[in-house]
Structures are given as structure tokens and as C-alpha cells.
Write a structure and sequence with these properties.
By secondary structure, this protein is an all-alpha fold. The chain has helices at 2-6, 24-43, 49-56, 60-88, 90-109, 114-142, 145-177, 182-188, 190-204, 221-239, 251-270, 287-317, 322-350, 352-375, 381-384, 386-397, 400-408, 416-445, 451-498. The chain starts with a helix and ends with a helix.
Length: 499
């Protein structure tokens, strides 16, 4: 794994035979700003939830959909958007998504009801799903060798920091604009960023040499529908756990399993046929790829749900302002930013064991956070969280960027959009599942004096997801070591046979 990370896969037919683009680092900066903006909206809304609840009289189920709906729509469109970018042109799809994201952000800020906000967030998620796979594909296209690892490290840093720093930025905006309408500026802040990025993207992003005309069947609408229905059926019983009484809702999990199985069967039948599958199943023959996708799905289920329950606990349970709640989570953001830059440089040397160390640090940090809430109850709990959250943040920085590099290392460039879209689908669907599952447990425990217990129960679920990701990483490390031992023994076996 370490070797594959240090020497990424073949350049593919999108590589520029005339040498690297001299403006590639400027183009990367545009991609990173756009990626920061779309990923920031995963977490920046967390500190605005109490203000949104008061301002729009939003029920708890709609609050979860404001978060989960964005992550779900984001995740469902990543794979077809990656396919569309590979086929039609990454710059064109990137710019279309950026324009839609900016307009949807304006609609979110102008929302007059919770339903309006949920629908606008779904559209915003679709737009984010159009943008994000183009970023990883453009990195594959513009960079090679060590430069590609460095560029992916920078992108991984943006992924970690944007998600972790969101609560602080949201708190600053709400503090500046006031609690009544400050939550609207959480969305309006995207407007100038989106406009500037759109202009620069037109000037700096490269074309896709392999792009051509796209037919509807090239985007596999049946596959997209099966995948979307399956994930929706998986999420609904968690998101609506408090609103739908009885156990009948859990039968949707059986339906989800059937729909996702039908999706895999359909995709397998499409391979080699007239319809282009939305998910290239041959990518999952690469152990580094399918294990990386599974790992990041589980990790993001635990990672993003931390901010959801922590900000609710600090604001609604302890009475913190949005700004102070954001400041309390800042140690995680700082740790993640510092460690992500280091992890991007070290992954070529250490490979997957680096991710194992990071996941263990996150699990220990979250366990320490739960302990801090009990040891220092009351309004001082937020400050007692600082040290364990810093440890968790440092660990997180060693997970996201290295896993991105390791997972895509062996993927050819001409399939980079689809591969990157699938990987990020794991992130977004994991986020949606984590927020739904942790939110269901959290709200079930909340009572007049039950905020600390609710927070503990929510953290237990988050830690369980992180530990599941750690098991996957350990399995990959074990398989890699067994493979190296077999390779080392093969020459001696051959030499003995010749003797």
C-alpha cells in the first residue's frame, strides 16, 4: 500500500502529452476553494440549528433533514456527476455545479419555512455533488507522481479543515449578524465565494481531452434510481425514528438491502453492454480501492456526527452562544489541519498503518470527550473537552488525506471521475447515516435534565463507527503484510524447484 501511494497509477488517456499545465497550481487553488465551500456547508449549519429552530419553528425531524438531506443529495449525485464529468468535460460540470450551488445558497438564506429550507438544502447538496468529483478527477488529470500525492494531501487537508472549522465560522457569522437572522448569513457567505470561483474556473481549469457527447444511457438512470431509493430507504427509519412510532419503520431496512442488491446486479449486467454503468464494479477488484471506500464511509458516519451532537449539547443543553460553541470545537479543527498536512507527506512512507494510528487517536479522543463531560459537568464542560478533542482532531488529520491518496493510487485517470465520485459518495452517505443514527439516539435520550446522558449515548454511536473503520484499516494492513510475505517466499520456492 505504501508503494502504491508513492507511485500512483497510470496516467491514462487524459494526461497531457505536452507536459504538465503551468497553471495547474492556480487551477488547484480554485478547486480547493470550491471544495472548501461545499464541504463547509456540511458542518457550518450545526451551530445555526437552534436559531433555525426558533426562527422557522422547525421540528426536530426537519433539523435532521437540513443536515442529512444535504449529505444525502450530495452523496447520491457524486457517482453520476463523476461519470458526467469524465464524459462531457470536467470544467463544464464543475462550473454548472458551482453556479447551482451559489443560487441554492441564496435560496437557503431566504427561506421562509422549514420545508423551503429543506428543499433548498437538497438542491444545494445536488450542486455540491456535481462539483466534488470533478476536483479529485482534475487532480488526477493535472498532476502525476509526487506532485499528485502532494495535491491530494492538500485536498484532504481541505476536507478535514472545512468540516471541522464550520462550527466556528458559523458562530462568528451568527454573532456578527445577530441570532434572529445570523443563520441566514451562514448561507449568504457562499455568494461572493461562488461568484469569484466561477470566474476563475472559466479561466484556469483545463478541458477534458476525452470528453464528447453524452447520451442519457451513458449516465445509467436506472442505476441512479436504484441507488438513490436504496440509500433513502436506509436512512428514513433513522431520521424519522421519533416521528414514526412502532417498529414497522425498521422493515425499510429490508427494502434498502433488496434495492441495493438489485443495484449491484443491475450494474454487473450493464458492464460490457450498451448502457454504461454508473458504478464501475471493476474498480472494486482493487483491494486498496474498495477497502478505502468502506473505511471512509464508516469514518465519516462517526466523524461528522460528532459536530451535530456536540453543538446541540453545548447550545441547547449548556446554554452556550453559537460563537462560544464553535470555539469549544476549534481544538478539533486545529488538530485536524496540522495533522492533515503532515499525513499527506508521510502516507507514501507508512501507507495504511498511518491511518490505523489516526483512527485509534480519534477513538481515544472521543472517549476522553465523553469522560470530560462527566468529570467536569455544567458550563465548564466545553472547556474540559478541549484536550480530548485536540487529540481526536490530530487523529482525524491522519485519516482523511492519507486514505484519499491510498484509495485512488491505483486508479487510471480516465476513470478518475467515477472513482473519486464513488469514494466521496462513501463520505457523504456515511455522513447522512451517521447524523441520522446518532441524532435518533441523541433525541431519544434528551429530557429536562438529560442533555449530558444524551450526549454520551450519541458519542458511543460515533465511537462505534470509528472503531468499525479501525477494524477495516487493520484488516487491510494484515492483508498487505500477508501479501508481502507471500511475495518474499515465492523466489525461494521457485529456486528450490529448479534445483
Amino acid at each position: 500500500m505504501a508503494q502504491s501511494a508513492a507511485h500512483p497509477g497510470p496516467a491514462g488517456r487524459d494526461a497531457d502529452p505536452g507536459g504538465p499545465d503551468p497553471r495547474r497550481w492556480q487551477a488547484l487553488a480554485v478547486c480547493l476553494v470550491a471544495g472548501f465551500m461545499t464541504l463547509l456547508d456540511v458542518s457550518i449549519v450545526n451551530v445555526a440549528l437552534p436559531s433555525i429552530k426558533e426562527g422557522l419553528n422547525t421540528p426536530e425531524s426537519d433539523l435532521q433533514w437540513v443536515l442529512s438531506g444535504y449529505a444525502l443529495a450530495f452523496g447520491l449525485f457524486l457517482i453520476p456527476a463523476g461519470r458526467l464529468g469524465d464524459a462531457r468535460g470536467r470544467r463544464a460540470v464543475f462550473m454548472a455545479g458551482l453556479a447551482l450551488f451559489t443560487l441554492a445558497s441564496a435560496a437557503c438564506g431566504a427561506a421562509q419555512s422549514s420545508m423551503w429550507l429543506v428543499i433548498a438544502r437538497l438542491v444545494q447538496g445536488v450542486a455540491g455533488g456535481l462539483i466534488s468529483p470533478q476536483i479529485s478527477a482534475l487532480i488526477q488529470q493535472m498532476f502525476s507522481g509526487r506532485e499528485r500525492g502532494r495535491a491530494f494531501g492538500m485536498f484532504g487537508t481541505v476536507v478535514g479543515i472545512s468540516t471541522a472549522v464550520g462550527p466556528l465560522l458559523g458562530g462568528l457569522l451568527i454573532q456578527a449578524a445577530g441570532p434572529d437572522h445570523g443563520w441566514r448569513w451562514v448561507f449568504y457567505v457562499n455568494l461572493p465565494l461562488g461568484a469569484v470561483c466561477l470566474l476563475l474556473a472559466h479561466r484556469l481549469l483545463p478541458d477534458t481531452p476525452s470528453a464528447g457527447r453524452v447520451r442519457p444511457r451513458d449516465l445509467d438512470p436506472v442505476g441512479v434510481a436504484l441507488l438513490g431509493a436504496g440509500v433513502l430507504a436506509l436512512l428514513l427509519p433513522f431520521v424519522q425514528a421519533q416521528q414514526w412510532p412502532g417498529n414497522g419503520k425498521w422493515l425499510l431496512l429490508v427494502l434498502a438491502g433488496a434495492l441495493l442488491a438489485a443495484f449491484v446486479i443491475w450494474e454487473a449486467r450493464c458492464t460490457g453492454g450498451r448502457t454504461h454503468p454508473v458504478l464501475d464494479l471493476s474498480l472494486f477488484r482493487l483491494r486498496s480501492y474498495w477497502l478505502g471506500c468502506l473505511l471512509i464511509l464508516l469514518y465519516f458516519a462517526g466523524f461528522t456526527s460528532i459536530f451535530f451532537v456536540t453543538t446541540l449539547y453545548l447550545q441547547s443543553g449548556l446554554g452556550y452562544s453559537a460563537l462560544v460553541a464553535g470555539l469549544a470545537i476549534t481544538p478539533f479543527a486545529l488538530g485536524s489541519g496540522v495533522a492533515a498536512s503532515i499525513g499527506g507527506r508521510l502516507v507514501g512512507r507508512f501507507g495504511r498503518p498511518l491511518v490505523v494510528v489516526g483512527l485509534a487517536m480519534v477513538a481515544l479522543g472521543l472517549a476522553g470527550t465523553a469522560l470530560a463531560v462527566h468529570l467536569v459537568p455544567g458550563t465548564d464542560a466545553g472547556w474540559a473537552m478541549a484536550a480530548p478533542l485536540l487529540l481526536a482532531g490530530l487523529g482525524s488529520g491522519l485519516v482523511i488525506a492519507p486514505n484519499q491518496t491510498l484509495t485512488l493510487a491505483e486508479v487510471p485517470v480516465n476513470r478518475a471521475g467515477s472513482a473519486g465520485g464513488t469514494l466521496q459518495t462513501g463520505q457523504r452517505v456515511g455522513s447522512a447515516i451517521g447524523i441520522a443514527a446518532v441524532g435518533a439516539v441523541f433525541f431519544a435520550q434528551v429530557g429536562p435534565d438529560g442533555w449530558a446522558d444524551a450526549y454520551d449515548h450519541g458519542l458511543v454511536v460515533s465511537v462505534a463507527f470509528v472503531l468499525a473503520a479501525l477494524i477495516v484499516a487493520l484488516a487491510d494492513v494484515g492483508a498487505d503484510r500477508r501479501g508481502r510475505r507471500r511475495t518474499a517466499h515465492e523466489p525461494s520456492d521457485a529456486s528450490r524447484s529448479t534445483v
